[in-house]
Amino acid sequence: MSTQARVLIDCQDAKGLVYKISKVFYDMHLNIDNNREFVDKEADKFFMRTVVDGEFEPQKLEHELRAILPKNADLKVVLPERKKIVLMVTKESHALGDILMRYVDGELNAEIEAVIGNYDTLEPLVRKFNIPFFHIPADNLGREEHEELIVEVLEKIDFDYIILAKYMRILTPNFVGRYKQRIINIHHSFLPAFIGANPYKQAYQRGVKIIGATAHFVTDDLDEGPIITQDVIPVNHRFNWQDMQRAGRNVEKIVLSRALDLVLHDRVFVHGNKTIVF
Amino acid sequence: MSTQARVLIDCQDAKGLVYKISKVFYDMHLNIDNNREFVDKEADKFFMRTVVDGEFEPQKLEHELRAILPKNADLKVVLPERKKIVLMVTKESHALGDILMRYVDGELNAEIEAVIGNYDTLEPLVRKFNIPFFHIPADNLGREEHEELIVEVLEKIDFDYIILAKYMRILTPNFVGRYKQRIINIHHSFLPAFIGANPYKQAYQRGVKIIGATAHFVTDDLDEGPIITQDVIPVNHRFNWQDMQRAGRNVEKIVLSRALDLVLHDRVFVHGNKTIVF
Amino acid sequence: MSTQARVLIDCQDAKGLVYKISKVFYDMHLNIDNNREFVDKEADKFFMRTVVDGEFEPQKLEHELRAILPKNADLKVVLPERKKIVLMVTKESHALGDILMRYVDGELNAEIEAVIGNYDTLEPLVRKFNIPFFHIPADNLGREEHEELIVEVLEKIDFDYIILAKYMRILTPNFVGRYKQRIINIHHSFLPAFIGANPYKQAYQRGVKIIGATAHFVTDDLDEGPIITQDVIPVNHRFNWQDMQRAGRNVEKIVLSRALDLVLHDRVFVHGNKTIVF
Amino acid sequence: MSTQARVLIDCQDAKGLVYKISKVFYDMHLNIDNNREFVDKEADKFFMRTVVDGEFEPQKLEHELRAILPKNADLKVVLPERKKIVLMVTKESHALGDILMRYVDGELNAEIEAVIGNYDTLEPLVRKFNIPFFHIPADNLGREEHEELIVEVLEKIDFDYIILAKYMRILTPNFVGRYKQRIINIHHSFLPAFIGANPYKQAYQRGVKIIGATAHFVTDDLDEGPIITQDVIPVNHRFNWQDMQRAGRNVEKIVLSRALDLVLHDRVFVHGNKTIVF
After folding, report:
1. In Å, how far is B250's CA from the nearest CA of chain C?
2. Is the pTM of this model over 0.80?
3. Structural domain span for residue A96
């Protein structure tokens, strides 16, 4: 018997959905603690995230809901347990560091199962927190070969999400496909501006007055995955590209941590190449 | 027979409210176009704004809903018609001007029935737009006497809201009580900082690095009414208080217009000295 | 005899420039009211904007300064007089309206000499303010032919800057070249994101969480001119592209007016495809 | 012989100051790498921060400058060496953690000489980074007695600034006076709003739509010291005060780190109860 669950529904829109769903909750004597809905009329899709309280069997709730939902509905009844994550990093520590600090002070709402680095630069930092660090160098390896070694490690770990905390290598469609909608990246620009390499250099050369960062799910299309959250900071002519990069790090780490917080509380629905964030 | 209505509910929280309300919609064959709810657990209060579509009689909908709602529920079934507003001004034109321009380009979603000024400075501007301007000077008049003249004008006008677009006189509790939850003010500071006169001077003297503006409902407690929306802009040591004031005007007008837009779409519930904004 | 001038210097960097320039001011008994400098080391360029006070002949000051500046220095001694501007518009009124309102309340710091529209939609609004409106339709005209008619009108007007206040036609290199560094545009996106047509539709389809606006000088490369200022606002999944456009208008008008204010106070230096903003 | 110095001047305004100062630089064959000035006309005060490059003796430069500056000028010729700081903490780790992480990745531009805590909660975290932690409990001690113990520790340490990274005890005027303009605090509100205890509770009760944080120098007047930098984030009716506090932590840590960065690069002048930030 549970006491709280997050009900996540993503289905074809239909008349009476709110009524039918809330009737199930009512008949099972559940309290609605929190409820958000959204209908994308263009796509004719219905999204709902409801936190329910009460004495109930999650499986029974799922069964009752499935009975009244349209076919092919994407339904999840999620218990509010801490998720498990794996971090992937290269050499920069700011995004990793921010996540570690939230982990330390109990704000992260997740277990960090492991950190994987293509360099060992960040190993000493990670070790301080008694988190396993796997150094998997890419030297002399093709992209696929390198990823095979990573997958080998990942296969031994139980996790919900992979967080690319400034992991500076491009992933193959094969790898991305294996962990669909489970890889989150922080991109060091205000996407879709400055796609590709060295966004801060690009931003400097273009003479922009604002720079930003974007947290998104990773899909095959590099830098084109569904955006979870974005933020910006002002810059000016006195910033060279390294200054922009330095300033950008604050935005990057805050944006990634905010995205993580949303995803770890099951607040994000992927909808094509967009997200619904409740 | 109507085709669209905004259902606004503000009542004691109770089990099954969403179910019972959505059942009414379902039984009357109404589509839920848009739905937002909020439960204030501390106060045990339930708030809901639903836009419904269909063929129905508003009175019947109201009757059916009232039958299932807790006693003393505050229920409104509002047709999405343009509201009517009266503006009150003194000498500064920026807030008034922004509203007039939105009126001109059809963005305002309201009829401006009249502008009342304690000075005639803005009369020529208002007249350009064929809007009645009432100049009601306060010279040699007590606050009550002056307000009596204003009320005399207001009594002849059919309106929903009074918008204080930089009206620089304090209103008496008597006036405020007469138009409860119907007067909206733009305060030239990031409330509750710099309550009282000359907020920009105060801000300058305090050496703040950010200034703001606050749109709020007017209550007896000056500058203490429920906040609808706020925004800020950065300033620095090169700003004297006049520069801050000049910079602040942009925020003031945008914040007031944003608040108006929310109120005119029935998106704002007053809840004690706070607001719920859907 | 003048009492105040803005000295604008843009030249090759050299040792002792600040000393030599401030010596000229000192020897002419001028007060430095305000002084900003910037050295772009990569480009080896020096920029300075100084406001000086005193009794002096502007030509003499210019002569003395030129004597100590590097050859080919770009030097201007500008008296703080109101600039003259021409606005170009199409159908949307928000950017035009914001400028008109600043004009009315004395905040604009410029004379509006004329408004040119390829449609007559905004003529009644402009006429209210006793500003000449020239309707120059583009129907059945090639781009060059249409611009010839515009140039014909412009040639009869004495003006400093052309402001494209949501003018929705692309200008030819010929037109742009004729008014080099004198045309300012508001682009309805956070450049360089969403270059080209319908940026709000693009933004909606990409699922961004922030939209923005960019004021820039117009150059041959469409949407690639030197950026003067940018700003953004948050959006979310509940915004369709029209909502984004509506929200974007607030940013557009504020960003354009802020850029105008900077340019009209001679605070902006163009430096390649970038700007220095003092 | 040095190669770079920051020249900091804070004095009575006088004619020809820029000329006389730049003449000293010129005569000593120094390059001006970067230069910012500000004149507060109301207070008749001149502020200047210049970074100079070249071969020179700092003492000689100081001597030459003093010869041409007004009496009582506050002049410093600072070599760009890393400053030394002491952190004071209580139980919350987010501000401390952000500083530690910047320390780890070489972004801090300072040596952390010690951390002092009135609780030992954060000792394990600090120890991970091989930084001395002094636990000085306040139990059963008067404010003065407790501070005596702290001063005892501080007296043995060579440091430039004390950073209150969420140190939750009020300091006595005696302590503050001992380290004048050397104590920096992060206040968990957008000062001057919500002075005093529990600002997040106050903010929640007031129903604000934005919360903020303020980094400032500590003076006798609690929460009234010169503001270095401030920032804000939006909140809404769904935030209870704990949510506001959680959201506020991101702003607090970023604002404190930004203030630190400015102070550690000698970019902040204190001017009465305000700051000049170059």
Report:
1. 7
2. yes
3. 83-277
